[in-house]
Amino acid sequence: MARNDARPVIKLRSSAGTGHTYVTRKSRRNDPDRLVLRKYDPIARQHTTYREER
């Protein structure tokens, strides 16, 4: 089965400048804009905002 293009794989990069990333999938139909989530950065050892990178 082919992967559906409606749920692409995206990278979430830390805004703390550590270079840490998370990889996830998102729904283009529900979230057409760039995704911003608050997640834990193990390098900075605190919660920071992660922004979608294309």
Question: What features would you describe in this structure?
Answer:
The structure is a single chain. A hairpin with a 6-residue loop joins strand 1 (about 10-15) and strand 2. A 4-stranded antiparallel beta sheet has the order 2-1-4-3, with no helix packed on it. By secondary structure, the protein is an all-beta fold. It has one domain: Rubrerythrin, domain 2 (Single Sheet), CATH 2.20.28.120. The chain is built from no helices and 4 strands.
Largest sheet descriptor: 4 strands, antiparallel
H/E topology pattern: EEEE
Structural class: mainly beta
Query: Cα distance, first to last residue?
Result: 24 Å
- The best one-word shape is elongated
Mean pLDDT: 93
Radius of gyration: 12 Å
In terms of DSSP E residues, the strand content is over 45%
CATH homologous superfamily - what is it?
Answer: Ribosomal protein L33
- What level of helicity do the residues show? under 10%
> What would CATH call the class?
Mainly Beta
